[in-house]
Amino acid sequence: MTAELIEKYIETKKAIGEPVSIFFKQRNSINGLFVQGNDYESLKAKNFWRIVHESKLAEWNKTKDIGLAKLFSGTDFTRLK
What we know:
The longest helix has 12 residues, at about 5-15. This protein has a five-stranded antiparallel sheet. It has helices at about 5-15, 40-45, 55-65, and strands spanning about 20-25, 30-35, 50-55, 70-75, 75-80. The relative contact order is 0.26. The chain is globular, with a radius of gyration of 12 Å. The chain has a single domain (about 5-80), classed as Roll (SH3 type barrels), CATH 2.30.30. The chain is built from three helices and five strands; from the N terminus they run αββαβαββ.
C-alpha cells in the first residue's frame, strides 16, 4: 500500500483511537495501533510505520513507551481493516 492510502486510513481511525487489523503479503495479519513518535513524518515519507501489537496495548496505554512499537513497511501491507 502507498503511504498516502495508509495515512488517509489511520487519520480516520486516530480520531477514534482504535487498533486496526493489518494484512500483509508475506506474513500473518496482526491487530495493532499506529503510533506517532518524534520521527513520524520522516518515517511516513519512507512508508514506514510504528505499530504497537494488541498484546502490548495495555502497557502502551500506561507508559506510552515507543519501545513497545515495531517498525513495519507499508509496502508489505495489502489491506487495513
